[in-house]
Amino acid sequence: xxxxxxxxxxxxxxxxxxxxxxxxxxxxxxxxxxxxxxxxxxxxxxxxxxxxxxxxxxxxxxxxxxxxxxxxxxxxxxxxxxxxxxxxxxxxxxxxxxxxxxxxxxxxxxxxxxxxxxxxxxxxxxxxxxxxxxxxxxxxxxxxxxxxx
Length: 149
Prior knowledge:
By secondary structure, this protein is α/β, with parallel strands linked by helices.
């Protein structure tokens, strides 16, 4: 994998993305397009409605279909966070994909950048990513950039 882009879903009203959440995802998609310089993406999402809707907005702008969803990319009161299961599910889904976008939730958006940058010269902090924000992790250059809406 060359790039892993972790996005926290857009702002929502309960389970569904709201108007501002859609705008956030449009902005994020344009940022991805501008910053990554890549064209071929594998797009994954949590199975939560707001994450799927967020991924669909991103996919429309980047001209990529949502490849698959997983409950393992979701954590809340009913979906216990498990970083190992998240990584295992991600590895199973991506295969030989070079550029992966995953739309997930607060806990994973906070923990995964720290885990994936463990061997980088500068490691990502365990910081809360706001709804509609994300991080692009470039494994070839061992660097990362935060993206915001």
